[in-house]
Amino acid sequence: MFLRVSILVVIISLLLCHVNLCGQQPASSSPPAAPPSASAPAPTVDRIQQMRADLNQMESLMNNMSSEITFLRDQNLQILLNTNVRMWTILIRDLRRQLDDEEQKRALDSKPAKPPAPKP
To answer: Secondary structure of the chain in the HEC alphabet?
Structure first.
């Protein structure tokens, strides 16, 4: 049982690392060709959908881990893993909010600005 929970913790950790690394640019010794502009293109819809799928999978793994914690005999390990589950819950919720904010921003940016109505 402990082995199953340990494997779940490792898998969730790897998924989190994957999600965090997807958002980072690789470090290079040469400077970038052009400085990033404030109006850099937003992530594509496919990338947002993939991130949502990853978050759903992470949440599923977290729920599996949470359901297995009650079968552990070591109370200290239960406390540790329950704390980790709470941390993952907060992290997944915050990442979902960031994705929602990004989608709203994309929707607002894609709408053309209305010209002001002429005064008679």
So the answer is: CHHHHHHHHHHHHHHHHHHHHHCCCCCCCCCCCCCCCCCCCCCCHHHHHHHHHHHHHHHHHHHHHHHHHCCCCCHHHHHHHHHHHHHHHHHHHHHHHHHHHHHHHHHHHHCCCCCCCCCC
Domain ranges across the chain: 2-20+47-107
Please, is 84 exposed, middle or buried when counting C-beta atoms within 10 Å of its C-beta (0-12, 13-18, 19+)? middle
Per-residue pLDDT averaged across 50-72, rounded? Answer: 93
pLDDT at 97: 95
Compute the average pLDDT of residues 78-83: 94
